[in-house]
Design a protein that fits this description.
This protein is mainly beta and 315 residues long. The protein has a single domain (3-314), classed as Beta-galactosidase, Chain A, domain 5, CATH 2.70.98. Strand 23 and strand 24 form a beta hairpin. The two termini are 20 Å apart. Helix content is 3%, strand content 51%. GO terms for molecular function: aldose 1-epimerase activity; carbohydrate binding.
Length: 315
């Protein structure tokens, strides 16, 4: 098995391709556009599946408003009116959600990340990126954010993040990843999904949490004519849980595993866009509006770090 990392142009953008020659497994990363994963291809048997959907051209990718594959930090999902209170102080974020009045999906989207490290090993290839938040509008804290993408010989792709408080005061942090997954050319209606949760978050008309309800659907759940835009709570004593996206027609299952436990990925957002050719499966470390409700919010003291890992593979 031979791994390599190739640097190449995608329009005016520069991207890095991590790939393994024998299997054809590959991922494509764009550091200067929020450090996103533009492509991810994984093999099962004779078939190489493209499993992440992003806009197809450099311009459409730069102009994308649907957060395809974006890293969501220091908060994910919505903060109503962009306002939150932390340790008795009120803060105002920019209200950037299209058609609504909320702040959404953090402060690192579409910003250039710094390339920290590239590793090519007989058993894997990896790339590490960073972004420094320093007294950003509405978030007057100093936090260094890292993400490492790793493609391994066992066919697994991992997204590992960490964040360290480099300031003098405690700061709130939350992380999420926003990929749209697909399986070949099938539509969402051909798939089933196994959701590792028995509790669903109730939303108001502004998609802000208003409590919790039991989630009693029979699993795996058919996605046929089923529209999802929901957040689920992960309650488990295990170190990780897996969301499974199942195509019976193609005899393949996409597994998205998220670390669980204190400070880890204990929430999950699922969304089926109107195109119904993909599904967003978004592991989160906190609930929607965690900056206000505190549910899953990590509070970092000076010099402290938080981290977690998401793993994607086919079976």
């Amino acid at each position: 098995m031979a791994f390599e990392i190739i640097k190449q142009k995608f329009g005016e953008l520069t991207e890095y391709v991590l790939q393994e020659s024998e299997s054809g497994n590959r991922c494509v990363i764009i550091p200067e556009l929020g450090g996103i994963v533009r492509q991810l291809s994984l093999r099962k048997g004779l078939t190489l599946f493209s499993v992440i959907k992003t806009p197809p051209t450099p311009l459409s990718l730069q102009e994308d408003t649907k957060s395809a594959s974006e890293l969501l930090f220091p908060f994910a999902s919505r903060i109503p009116d962009g306002q939150y209170t932390f340790l008795g102080k009120k803060y105002q974020l920019s209200k950037n959600e299209t058609g609504r009045r909320n702040a959404i999906h953090g402060l690192v989207r579409k910003h250039p990340f710094k390339l920290e490290e590239q590793i090519v090993h007989p058993d894997f290839a990896s790339i590490k990126l960073s972004f420094h938040l320093d007294n950003t509008e509405g978030y007057p804290f100093q936090v260094r954010f890292f993400v490492t993408y790793k493609l391994s010989a066992d066919g697994k792709f991992t997204v590992s993040y960490s964040a360290i408080n480099e300031g003098h005061e405690p700061c709130p942090v939350m992380f999420g990843w926003h990929p749209y997954f697909m399986l070949g050319n099938e539509d969402v209606d051909a798939w089933k999904i196994d959701i590792p949760s028995s509790q669903i978050v109730k939303f108001d008309d502004n998609m802000i949490p208003q409590g919790v309800a039991p989630f009693n659907e029979q699993l795996p759940m058919l996605l046929y004519k089923n529209e999802l835009d929901n957040c689920f709570i992960i309650n488990t004593e295990s170190a990780a849980v897996t969301t499974r996206l199942i195509s019976d027609n193609q005899h393949v299952t996409l597994n998205i595993e998220q670390e669980t436990g204190e400070g880890k990925f204990n929430y999950l957002v699922l969304y089926t866009p109107p195109t119904r050719d993909c599904i967003a499966i978004e592991p989160l470390t906190g609930n929607v509006d965690a900056f206000n409700n505190g549910e899953g919010l990590n509070i970092l003291a000076k010099g402290h770090t938080v981290d977690g890992t998401i793993t994607v593979h086919l079976s």
